């Protein structure tokens, strides 16, 4: 039966008009095949799509109205590069959200600065503005405003606080590409913004990131341009692994194929053909040898194709978001509904608080749906060594409480997630 479903799904790829999405985000079959084609070209020493970085950034500039963009191997390395270019005194402080991935404070620390964790507003999972201002000292130089799950942070309040204290404003838009606040795109409010193209993000090049600088506040532009010139290209082996993982993932994670594909994916991870989003070295507070690199030309071409479909992707996500809001209205916070139901809020995942997370996770697995457990601790995972990232347990009470029960469900056009949560 599984084989029959796979054959049917493959036929629909080739001849059908219906587009499928794999569970973390949108990548068409054509994108997957092009990635594998680039893999084979790279394998034989050919470097595909050499103008693709410039072409992609040209499209980005049309949307964001900025003129200075830089493409990196990851969002975390784009943040690291910016912080190094800012060149503050060692030991300067940077405000970060106490409900994030450890790679954010890791970039801050390795750039020579101290992360100061700010607790969250439990309704929108973003930085609490009142708490943030209380933590500012004479050593605080920058603030990283994270738009969690695609939900815009308390931008008006946080921007006002940053301006009062002359802080450099960095928007973390890793999961908020396309989201707006008061009809203005996230990523256009601060001095700089970072975006992620990792597999679980709105558009993906497997791994990848982008830094945008607001040209109205461009004292750092020249420094960043000079810094970027020295950033190396990816090694050939890394390009090959990335393009292969991107192309194969785009096939194996599709709903019907995933019944079998998840086992192949597990084998590829075990054999280290596939790479995890966070390396063991980063989990231990270090940087890998390929940490700071430019996005490859092949990846830029794949991400460009998806960027041209961004409106379509957002429209699809909003349709599913509204479906979840309507069906789960009795199980989620009313203030959360009010914030998220805004048409300009484009979620990447749908967060829900539950009492029996382990049971629900098993139910999702049994239905071949990969449930998101991104924040089971203030720094992503309870296995993270807080001391390495200078986090003090108990400093972000709301975050720690939320982390005990939060899940996030993928935006897939299926009644299964709703059914599971209603019957839990």
- The main sheet orders its strands as 1-11-10-7-6-2-3
CATH fold assignment of the largest domain? Aspartate Aminotransferase, domain 2
Distance between the termini: 28 Å
Question: Overall mean pLDDT score?
Answer: 90
- Total helical elements: 17
Number of strands: 13
Biggest beta sheet attributes: 7 strands, mixed
Using the coordinates above, name the CATH class of the largest domain.
Answer: Alpha Beta
CATH architecture of the largest domain: 3-Layer(aba) Sandwich
Low-confidence stretches: 12-24
Structural category is alpha/beta
Helical proportion? Answer: 40-55%
Categorize the overall geometry.
globular
CATH homology group of the largest domain: Type I PLP-dependent aspartate aminotransferase-like (Major domain)
Order of helices and strands: HHHEHEHEEEHEHEEEEEHHHHHHHEHHEH
Roughly what fraction of the amino acids lie in strands? Answer: 5-15%
Q: How many structural domains can be distinguished in the coordinates?
A: 2
Question: Would you give an account of this structure?
Answer:
- It is built from 17 helices and 13 strands.
- 46% of the residues are buried.
- Residues 12-24 have low confidence and may be disordered.
- With 424 residues, the chain is an alpha/beta fold.
- The protein has helices at 2-15, 29-43, 52-64, 75-86, 103-110, 129-134, 155-164, 221-229, 236-252, 258-270, 280-283, 297-307, 310-327, 334-340, 357-366, 397-403, 416-422, and strands at residues 68-72, 93-97, 114-118, 120-121, 126-127, 140-146, 168-172, 180-181, 184-185, 192-196, 209-213, 350-353, 406-409.
- It is globular, with a radius of gyration of 21 Å.
- The longest helix has 18 residues, at 310-327.
- Helix 7 (155-164) links the parallel strand 6 (140-146) and strand 7 (168-172).
- The strands form 4 sheets. A 7-stranded mixed beta sheet has the order 1-11-10-7-6-2-3, with helices on both faces. Strands 4-5 form a two-stranded antiparallel sheet. Strands 8-9 form a two-stranded antiparallel sheet.
- The chain starts with a helix and ends with a helix.
- It folds into 2 domains: 22-309, Type I PLP-dependent aspartate aminotransferase-like (Major domain) (Aspartate Aminotransferase, domain 2); 310-422, Aspartate Aminotransferase, domain 1 (Alpha-Beta Complex), CATH 3.90.1150.10.
- Helix 2 packs antiparallel against helix 9 (236-252).
């Amino acid at each position: 039966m599984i084989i029959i479903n796979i054959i049917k799904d493959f036929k629909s790829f080739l001849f059908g008009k219906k587009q499928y999405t794999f569970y973390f985000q949108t990548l068409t079959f054509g994108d997957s095949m092009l990635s594998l084609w680039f893999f084979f070209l790279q394998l034989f020493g050919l470097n595909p799509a050499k103008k693709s970085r410039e072409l992609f950034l040209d499209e980005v500039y049309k949307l964001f109205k900025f003129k200075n963009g830089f493409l990196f191997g990851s969002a975390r390395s784009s943040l690291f590069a910016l912080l190094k270019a800012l060149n503050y005194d060692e030991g300067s402080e940077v405000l970060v959200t106490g409900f994030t991935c450890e790679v954010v404070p890791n970039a801050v620390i390795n750039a020579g600065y101290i992360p100061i964790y700010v607790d969250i507003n439990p309704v929108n999972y973003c930085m609490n503005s009142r708490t943030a201002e209380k933590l500012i000292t004479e050593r605080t130089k920058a603030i990283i405003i994270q738009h969690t799950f695609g939900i815009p942070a308390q931008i008006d309040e946080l921007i006002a606080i940053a301006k009062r204290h002359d802080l450099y404003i960095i928007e973390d838009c890793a999961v908020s590409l396309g989201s707006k606040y008061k009809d203005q795109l996230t990523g256009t409010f601060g001095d700089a913004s970072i975006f992620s193209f990792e597999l679980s993000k709105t558009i993906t090049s497997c791994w990848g990131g982008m830094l945008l600088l607001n040209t109205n506040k461009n004292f750092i532009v020249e420094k960043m341009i000079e810094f970027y010139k020295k950033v190396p290209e990816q090694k050939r082996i890394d390009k090959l692994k990335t393009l292969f993982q991107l192309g194969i993932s785009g096939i194996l994670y599709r709903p019907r194929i995933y019944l079998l594909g998840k086992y192949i994916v597990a084998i590829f991870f075990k054999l280290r053909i596939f790479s995890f989003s966070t390396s063991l070295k980063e989990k231990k507070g270090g940087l890998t040898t390929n940490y700071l690199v430019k996005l490859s030309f092949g990846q830029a071409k794949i991400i460009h194709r998806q960027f041209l479909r961004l409106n379509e992707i957002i429209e699809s996500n909003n349709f599913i978001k509204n479906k979840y809001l309507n069906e789960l209205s009795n199980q989620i916070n009313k203030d959360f509904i009010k914030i998220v139901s805004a048409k300009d809020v484009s979620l990447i995942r749908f967060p829900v608080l539950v009492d029996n997370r382990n049971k629900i996770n098993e139910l999702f697995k049994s239905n071949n749906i990969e449930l998101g457990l991104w924040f089971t601790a203030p720094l992503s995972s309870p296995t993270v060594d807080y001391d390495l990232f200078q986090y003090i347990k108990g400093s972000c009470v709301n975050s720690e409480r939320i982390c005990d029960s939060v899940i996030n469900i993928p935006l897939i056009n299926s009644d299964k997630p709703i059914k599971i949560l209603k019957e839990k």
